Structures are given as structure tokens and as C-alpha cells.
UniProtKB/TrEMBL annotation:
GO terms for molecular function: iron ion binding; oxidoreductase activity. This is CO or xanthine dehydrogenase, Mo-binding subunit. The lineage of its organism: Bacteria, Bacillati, Actinomycetota, Actinomycetes, Mycobacteriales. Residues 1-13 have a biased composition (Polar residues). Residues 1-20 are annotated as: Disordered.
Length: 780
């Protein structure tokens, strides 16, 4: 309360935390080195695991002699496929569901190693050091076999990665057939092959598990680096054939996930299976070489895209035909996620006709895993095609996009593949980015630079992305809210700290829902023993889905508090106002009772409650998504300079104008966008998880696998357009967009710079060597 100039008491408005740049609550522990990660877990007598991995891309395993390793002091066990694989009961994950046919995924290699790094045996020792020494003593009798590592030749290869899959085709899908008549008669048609290399999530914290089996109680506890603690629990229970209530997953801090930690991989399965066979907790922490070698590849697509335009530059038709490499053991079954590339190819544009066709193929390489925007190739191919078309039609790429981008007044809009866009205005984010950039000012600067022999370029990329997809287990999220006897509030959600700051946003939303001061709210997340089921961090769902769950539980608890306060203050419930962790009377703010006092009554003086009122100050609720998909969109704009002597690219400015609905915390939203954008910049310019012809990975250290640093990335400028979605608060997802839009924006900027020299990059990454080679070829 405050005093006005006449001395009368007035009510201070309740603070609104959602929409403000509240400092992240987790930063204190993380920035001072006090976070709790899997490798920090120590259990009594804990043992350590290490994998024997195949040095061959493909080889028959004739036998494994572990006698020398077992004789090494400190080695407790060596497990092979014969020891672990027969114990698997079920190995499906809710991402695909139990009824979707899956590709093979044995925990340890059975009979044949299928890629370099394939786990062949598991060593358990008293320390990781001893386990590493024992690796050298395990004698595996390999018989090398021919391998197929080039996915563009996999369908015609005599080598089969899996005998049950002819031509190495795991699956595929086709949409409507191309309208060849439109392509034949259009005023302008562009047809380009676009190749995207393998690159990987590379989280700061690699994969890791500590699994402890209690034989007496038949209970299993897992400390995990995961994005999905509840589904990891369910997966483990199914895998081992034990009741889910006997499994507890604890997720504390996670140093990045980016999709790689959604689904348990084969090594995780091994540790779960082995934990019941050893006398103490079992820890496995992946090293960086293992992570780059076997934690899963991403992207790696080769395709041909076509777009047809009328003489006014309007899109008439779009078609894409592509192949995606899924390695030897994809996780999970890849045909479903790859379909999104074709379904989303029309993008945020007015496209009357669209078609797609694709296949996913096996190779003797690490398996495909999820990575931030797994369908990103559709934006890459489409946006490169648009810039090529603009040059062909002698239009500025800005003008071509302006003529074709969807407007707010066109919503709802179904793209030709049936995707139901709504609550978006791609043209508005685009125009905002153009304005921030000062498009005309840059074109003037570009012309002046060219006259001086400098090559500057500008690239745009526009996309629309599905967030919070309400399918299967992703369609609901739970929340429990509890006021403690002190009046402080705990909010329990599946959550977990993997960089998306659900801790902070949940506290902001809860404080608003109850009228509490933010310092009076705390959150407990990532422990399946005490938090409600949730599908975890994936598919840009956490913000909108958790906001829905908090809103529903908060409404229930708020009503309880209002009823209790009304009785205490002897007024009608409609007269009660909740603010500043207290309840007051609307027309007489001097009459108030604190949350602490209300909690004291409920917990310690229940006899003072009115007849029939429960003393429970707790609420649980499950939110069910109100829409099948929430659509976010953005435009990325990038300027660069290319040194035509060396091929080096220097990024000059980077702008992102996005619409993710109202922002719960703008600083966190911008952090998500910036992180994804930097990952995309790496994918455009330098990251390449290459293999040689024999299937040997060539980039399993940071000496060879190059990541962007602060020296390669300019300050990122943000613009925000806020179009509310149909869910609670109007919130939409923000997790994946940065990684989707940045790659084509960078490539288009490079191509714009090199256009006067007749060079166009359609094969990634755009490394200095590749740019120099293209310039040399063009100069001949």
C-alpha cells in the first residue's frame, strides 16, 4: 500500500512479472560453478562404465575375448551383446509410440558392427581410468566388410546396412505429384540441387547417466542428463520390464540438449541393463570424442528443389525431392520427422501448388538424432531457391519475398500440404527486419564497396515453424502448486534446466497467477518422484504447454485462497484482491491478510475454517492443448563481407525479427533465438561431421570439428512482433527458430556478395576452401 497526497490509503497494483526481463533464478548457481550435473553425482562404491567401440565402419564380430581385461585389477565386469541384449523387454519411446514400426536398435552390436564407434562391449571398473585401460585388453575378432558411407549412393549399393531393408531404404513418403504442366508453362522456373552436410548438436555437457539398482526394494534410480525425465522413466521401465513406480529419474542441471537428449540412445540402454548386474551404482559419462563419433548425426540431406513463378514474380508451384541420411541406428524412427521437410516446404508464402517426395536411407555411419528444428532443410532449400529466382528475374530478393509472403488478414491459411497456419503474420516480421536493417542504405553501401573491389552481401530467410504440437503424449502437461505453512509457494512441473530457463518462467507465471511476490515462489522440477508427468523439452513446447498447466493449477489454488481470505476478512469473495502475497478488500485496502497468515490458519488452525472448507492449499491440474499446432515465424537478415582471395566470410550484422506471441521473459526468448542462430551460423560456415570413403569419422575432436565463437558472430539485433496464439497467455514456442532461419540467411548473404562473380553456393558448408574453389572455377 502507498499514501497519496491527501493521506488516503490506496492499493498498489499487483506486479506483473510475465512480459518482463526478470533475472534468471538459476544463474546464481550456474555462474558460480555450483550447478548440479550428472558427473557431480557420487554414490557409495560407485562403479564406472566405458564402451569398447568398433574401429571399422562395418565388420563381422567373430568373437570377443575379455579375459585379459577381467584380469586387470579394478575391472569388475565386461558385458557383451549376449549378456545384455536378451534382457530387453520393450524398447519403444513415446515420440513414435508403441505401434509405429521401428528400425533396429540393439543395445550392443550383435554379430556385426555397423559404424565406427558402434558399441561392442561394456566395461565396468572401479574408475573410468581403469576402464579406459581395460579397453586395450579386450580382444575383438573383427572381420572387416565393405561399407557404404555415401548416402547419395546407398540405394544402389550392394552393401546392405540392415538385411531387412532392401536398397538401404528405411522409408519414405510422397505428397501430391508435381504439377509438371505449371512448371513447363511458367514464366520463370528455378531448379537447384541443395546439399546440406552432417553437423551435430554438440551440447556443452555430453550424454551421461548414473543408475543405481536397489535389489532389496527392487527400485531403480537414474540421475540423467535428459530433456525428458518422465519419458526416460517410462522407457526404462518398459526396457527392463519393471513397474514404472519402481523407477525414479532425477534430472538436475543439463548442459544443453538441443534434441540429442530427448530419446535414450543405445548406450543409455546398456547402462540401464547393466545396472542390475553390478553391486553398486553405475556411472557413464560420455567423452567428447564419443559424443562426436556416436551420439547421432543431424541434417545431411541432398535434394532438388523447384519453384515456378508467373511474370509478376508470384509463386505458382513448389516441389522438392530429397534423400536424408539416417545412419545405421537412427533415434527414433526417422520417417515421421523427415516428412516435415516436405510438409513445410511451402513455408510462410502464398503457394497454390506444392509437392514433395523423399526417402530416408541407412549408411554405415552414426545414426540420425533429433537436432533443433529437424526439418530445417526445407527452409534452407526454399530460401536459397528464392534468392536465385530473384536474381534470375532481376528483382531484389526483398521485393520477391514481399510479393509472396502471407499477411495477417489471410489467416487462417492452409498450405497446399494441409498445414493449418493461423495467428501469424509473416509479412510483418519481414517488414520489421527490412526496416531495422535499412535495406536501401545497405544497397547503397554495397554498391560503393563493390566499386572499391570489396564484396558485401545481404541475405534474408523467412520461415514458419510449428511449436507445441498437440499430438500423443505431447498434448498435455501437468502442474502441482502448493502453498507451504509459511505462505511461500512451490510449483512442481516436469521441467528441468536445459538452458531454456523453465525455472524462471514458471516462477514468473505462478507469481502472476496467485498475486504473489516473485521472491515468495520457488519451483521444483526434474524429479519423477515428486513432479507430475510431462513430455519434457522438445518441439518448442515447454513455454506454451507449461504456461497452460500453471494457469490451470493456479486458477484452482487462487480460488481456494480467495475463499479462505473472504471468510477471514468477512467479505464476499468478489471483494477480495490478491496482490503482494496478501489478500485485501477491494474498497478498503487497509483490511488485509498475508498469505503467511492464511497458510497458518489452514495448516495449524483448521478449526477456524468455515464448515466444509478443506484446509488443503494445494492444486494439481493437467493442461490439454487448445490447438493442434501453435505457429511461430521469423525473418532473419544477415550482411557479410567475403574476401575473394581467401574465401573467408566475415559477418557484419545479424537481425532477427520474430513472432513467438507475447514473451514471458524477453531476455530468455532472445537467449533462445541467439543460441539457435549461432548454431545455424556454425552449420552454414564451418561445422562438418565428415567421413572418409572407408567410413572413418574425420572430426571427432574440436581440432577438426569447428564451432563458432564470439569472434565469428556479430551482435544479434532483435525485433519482436507479438501476435497471440490460441492458448493461455497467447504464448507460442521459441526454442528452434533461431537454428532454422540462420543457415539460409548466411548462405544467401554469401551468394549475394559473390553474385557479381557468377558464384552460387548450394553445397554446404560454405568454408573458405569451398568458396575459394568455386571462385577459382568461375574465373576459368
Amino acid at each position: 500500500m502507498t499514501q497519496d497526497v491527501q493521506g488516503a490509503t490506496t492499493t498498489t497494483p499487483a506486479p506483473r512479472y510475465a512480459g518482463t526481463r526478470v533475472q534468471r533464478v538459476e544463474d546464481g548457481r550456474l555462474l558460480t560453478g555450483r550447478g548440479g550435473f550428472v558427473d557431480d553425482v557420487v554414490r557409495p562404491g560407485m562403479l564406472h562404465a566405458c564402451f569398447v567401440r568398433s574401429p571399422f565402419a562395418r565388420a563381422t564380430i567373430n568373437g570377443i575375448d575379455a579375459s585379459a581385461a577381467l584380469a586387470l585389477p579394478g575391472v569388475r565386469a565386461v558385458f557383451t551383446a549376449a549378456d545384455l541384449n536378451p534382457d530387453v523387454k520393450e524398447a519403444w519411446h513415446a515420440v513414435a509410440g508403441k505401434d509405429v514400426p521401428d528400425t533396429p536398435r540393439p543395445p550392443l552390436a550383435e554379430g556385426e558392427a555397423k559404424f565406427v564407434g558402434d558399441p561392442v562391449a561394456l566395461i565396468v571398473a572401479e574408475s573410468r581410468y581403469v576402464a579406459e585401460d581395460a579397453l586395450e585388453l579386450v580382444d575383438v575378432d573383427y572381420e572387416p566388410l565393405p561399407a557404404i558411407t555415401d548416402f547419395t549412393r546407398a540405394q544402389s549399393s550392394e552393401v546392405l546396412v540392415h538385411e531387412a531393408y532392401p536398397n538401404n531404404v528405411a522409408g519414405g513418403m510422397g505428397g501430391a505429384p508435381p504439377d509438371e504442366e505449371t512448371f513447363a508453362s511458367a514464366a520463370c522456373v528455378v531448379n537447384e540441387n541443395v546439399y546440406q552436410q552432417i553437423y551435430a548438436p554438440v551440447p556443452i555437457e555430453t550424454r551421461g547417466l548414473v543408475v543405481e539398482w536397489s535389489a532389496a526394494s527392487e527400485e531403480l534410480t537414474l540421475w540423467a542428463s535428459t530433456q525428458t525425465p518422465h519419458e526416460l522413466r517410462a522407457f526404462c521401465a518398459r526396457l527392463l520390464g519393471i513397474a514404472a513406480q519402481r523407477v525414479r529419474v532425477i534430472m538436475r542441471d543439463t548442459g544443453g540438449g538441443f534434441g540429442q537428449k530427448v530419446v535414450p540412445m543405445r548406450e543409455d540402454m546398456c547402462i540401464m541393463l547393466a545396472a542390475r548386474k553390478v553391486p553398486a551404482a553405475l556411472k557413464w559419462i560420455e567423452d567428447r570424442r564419443e559424443n562426436l563419433m556416436s551420439a547421432g548425426q543431424a541434417r545431411h540431406v541432398d535434394g532438388t528443389g523447384r519453384m515456378a513463378f508467373d511474370d509478376g514474380g508470384n509463386i505458382l508451384a513448389a516441389d522438392i525431392d530429397f534423400v536424408q541420411d539416417i545412419g545405421a541406428y537412427p533415434t527414433p524412427y526417422p520417417v515421421l520427422t523427415t516428412a516435415a521437410i516436405g510438409m513445410f516446404f511451402p513455408g510462410p508464402y502464398r503457394v497454390p501448388k506444392a509437392s514433395f517426395n523423399y526417402k530416408t536411407v541407412f549408411t554405415n555411419t552414426s545414426g540420425l538424432a533429433a537436432y533443433r528444428g529437424p526439418w530445417q532443410y526445407e527452409t534452407l532449400a526454399r530460401e536459397i531457391l528464392l534468392d536465385i529466382a530473384a536474381r534470375k528475374m532481376n528483382l531484389d530478393p526483398v521485393e520477391l519475398r514481399r510479393r509472396n509472403l502471407l499477411r495477417r488478414d489471410e489467416m487462417p491459411y492452409f498450405n497446399p500440404n494441409g498445414m493449418p497456419y493461423d495467428h501469424v503474420a509473416p509479412s510483418e516480421t519481414f517488414e520489421q527486419a527490412v526496416k531495422i536493417l535499412d535495406h536501401e542504405g545497405f544497397r547503397k553501401e554495397q554498391r560503393e564497396a563493390l566499386a572499391q573491389g570489396r564484396y558485401l552481401g545481404l541475405g534474408f530467410s523467412a520461415y514458419i515453424e510449428p511449436t507445441g504440437a498437440a499430438t500423443g503424449h505431447l498434448a498435455t502437461e501437468g502442474c502441482t502448486m502448493r502453498m507451504e505453512p509459511t505462505g511461500k509457494i512451490n510449483v512442481y512441473v516436469n521441467g528441468g534446466s536445459s538452458g531454456n530457463s523453465l525455472e524462471t518462467t514458471v516462477i514468473q507465471l505462478t507469481a502472476d497467477a496467485l498475486g504473489a511476490d516473485i521472491d515468495d515462489v520457488a519451483t521444483i522440477q526434474g524429479d519423477t518422484a515428486i513432479t507430475p508427468y510431462g513430455a519434457g523439452t522438445q518441439g518448442s513446447r515447454s513455454g506454451p504447454m507449461t504456461a497452460g498447466a500453471v494457469a490451470e493449477a493456479g486458477a484452482i489454488l487462487r480460488n481456494k485462497l480467495v475463499a479462505l481470505a473472504a471468510h477471514h476478512l468477512k467479505v464476499a469473495e468478489t471483494e477480495v484482491v490478491l496482490a503482494h502475497s496478501a489478500a485485501s478488500v477491494r474498497d478498503d485496502p487497509s483490511k488485509q491478510v498475508s498469505f503467511g497468515e492464511l497458510a497458518y490458519v489452514a495448516y495449524y488452525s483448521p478449526q477456524a475454517l468455515p464448515p466444509g472448507m478443506s484446509p488443503e492449499l494445494e492444486a494439481s491440474a493437467r493442461y490439454v492443448a487448445k490447438a493442434p499446432i501453435l505457429w511461430s515465424n521469423a525473418t532473419h537478415a544477415c550482411t557479410c563481407e567475403v574476401d575473394v582471395a581467401t574465401g573467408k566470410v566475415t559477418l557484419l550484422r545479424y537481425i532477427v525479427s520474430e513472432d513467438v506471441g507475447p514473451m514471458i521473459n524477453p531476455a530468455i526468448v532472445e537467449g533462445q533465438i541467439a543460441g539457435g542462430t549461432v548454431q545455424g551460423i556454425g552449420g552454414a560456415l564451418m561445422e562438418d561431421l565428415a567421413y572418409d570413403d572407408d567410413g572413418n569419422p574425420l572430426a571427432t575432436t574440436f581440432v577438426d570439428y569447428l564451432l563458432p565463437t564470439a569472434t565469428e558472430v556479430p551482435p544479434i539485433e532483435f525485433g519482436h512482433v507479438e501476435i497471440p496464439g490460441p492458448g493461455p497467455g497467447g504464448y507460442k514456442g521459441a526454442g528452434e527458430g533461431g537454428a532454422i532461419g540462420s543457415v539460409p540467411a548466411v548462405i544467401n548473404a554469401i551468394n549475394d556478395a559473390l553474385a557479381p562473380l557468377g558464384v552460387t553456393i548450394t553445397r554446404l558448408p560454405a568454408s573458405p576452401a569451398s568458396i575459394a574453389a568455386l571462385l577459382s572455377e568461375a574465373a576459368r
